[in-house]
């Protein structure tokens, strides 16, 4: 689905977007505190995916808002009004991608959606079924990519600002950035809950999970399990421990390399810039369990 060639071609897109967003951030800092989350973290993932799928930039805001609403349905205890917002967002996104596929059928390009259509046409003679498959893929990709990556971008910046000695260490040793990214993903996994249904009676440790029973795997708790991670509440970029932030097994996240690339590019650029921001207000969070979401990360000049 994501050929390696695509990732290579996305690197300049990501680096260019990071540079532009951080230039804007630096400029805005002269005027006072800036919400890094809104200005940078919410923008970079939608620019990256938007360019890859060749979506009009005027649609980025709409797609971000619809994604925020849609993921309520994946929460542990959504309210009735949250479910209604999620349903409405799903319907709107369905229409959006049906229209996009119609356009790409008329004017195919070298974008991701056109290439998926070519792939499906080669193996699925029924064009409606091919369209349906590509439609689901496009929709899922937006949902999978935006909230998660936005969160980890802000989370990385926040954790490093809260741990200045580790920030300094990274400044002197940028080769440690990939280790820092993994520790951010362990310490504050963007998805805290992965759902599975038992295909048969299954013994899990001391618990018998009956056939057909849904199980919620609590990733955040697993990442802070002292039997797996010594001193688990310590944020330590030297840890280098494997984690479950991208899941495991056959459903392992297909976008993991892209997400890692975005966070690495952001930290590289931020650490090499002369700007030394600091937190200017407590971080604001959406009250959620499954999809972690920072809603505001106010930064100012040191
Ligand atoms: C930090 C960012 C991200 C995190 C934490 C994350 C996390 C995850 C997790 C936990 C799963 C497994 C879900 C399960 O087992 O039920 C998953 C699957 C998936 N992710 Fe991501 N994801 C991220 C970014 C992305 C991006 C950027 C894309 C697309 C470009 C993407 C596309 C996918 C896809 C297509 C799957 C489904 C794989 C399958 O079922 O075979 N993800 N992701």
List its traits.
302 residues; mainly alpha; Cytochrome p450; 11 helices; 56% helix; 10% strand; binds protoporphyrin IX containing FE
Structure description:
- The chain is mainly alpha-helical.
- The protein has one domain: Orthogonal Bundle (Cytochrome p450), CATH 1.10.630.
- It has eleven helices and nine strands.
- It has helices spanning about 5-30, 35-40, 45-50, 60-70, 80-105, 110-125, 125-160, 165-170, 175-185, 220-225, 255-270, and strands at about 35, 195, 200-205, 205-210, 215-220, 275-280, 285, 295, 300.
- Strands 1-9-6 form a three-stranded antiparallel sheet. Strands 2-5 form a two-stranded antiparallel sheet. It has a two-stranded antiparallel ribbon with strand order 3-4.
- Strand 7 and strand 8 form a beta hairpin.
- Helix 1 packs parallel to helix 11 (about 255-270), helix 4 (about 60-70) packs across helix 5 (about 80-105) and helix 5 (about 80-105) packs across helix 7.
- The protein is globular.
- The N and C termini lie far apart (about 45 Å).
- Protoporphyrin IX containing FE binds next to helix 7 and helix 11.
